[in-house]
Amino acid sequence: MNFENPIEGGRVLEDTIVPECEPWSVKLNKGDVLRLVDLEGQQAVDFLCYSADDPADRYNAANTIKLNGNIYLGQDAALWSVRARKLMTIIDDTCGYHDTIYGCCSVEVDDVRFGKNNGKGCQGNFEAELAKHGLGQKDIVANVNFFMRVPVEESGALSIVPGLSKPGDYLSLRAEQNILAVLSNCPECLNNAAGFKPTPIRVIVYSAQ
Q1: What is the rounded distance in angstroms from the CA atom of residue 93 to the CA atom of residue 104?
Q2: pLDDT tens digits along 123-167
Q3: Which helix (H) or strand (E) segment is 8 a member of?
Q4: What's the pTM value of the predicted model, to 2 decimals?
Q5: Residues in Cβ contact with 185 at an 8 Å cutoff, skipping those fewer than 6 apart
Q6: Which backbone phi and psi does 18 adopt, to 5 degrees?
Q7: Adjacent-strand bridge partners of 93
């Protein structure tokens, strides 16, 4: 798949495949763009981002919901921080309805939900990847789940249903300040978060410099 560069005059800094079930991270300068590509469809990507200059000012789910006026993220939606500052903006999106409320899977919560687990979870992936940047468990908050579909009924009941993303669907996020972006390519095999079969994703970093 060849993609048009979303930044006029920009260049590709990284173009890589993140294997199924694995974490990944990158530091972005203001104006850089991160593109996430769901190569095979229905693959949830758990995502967190932080101000690179002040990691305590990190993604905040409640502020993101309030300031977008929606529990789902899509084209032109922003990821907002603890201090109500824009961290990233979705500038391209071929899927829509990305989840803000379900958080990440873990070995412990799957043991409660299913009586078994996948041997690893997004919680553990986040912990391992954040450690590379001097951060840890206390820095993990309720995250975005790109490409994951969590409808909410009038009663408040919710569930994970088959994702809407098709092979090749993607979204692009522009950094609104210097950013640390961290993701877990979800290893969940016990519900529809990854279509019961986790698959690789592609990530592309475009430089604004």
Answers
A1: 22
A2: 999 999 999 999 999 999 999 999 999 999 999 999 999 999 999
A3: none
A4: 0.96
A5: 18, 19, 20, 21, 22, 23, 24, 43, 45, 125, 198, 200, 201
A6: -95, 115
A7: 171
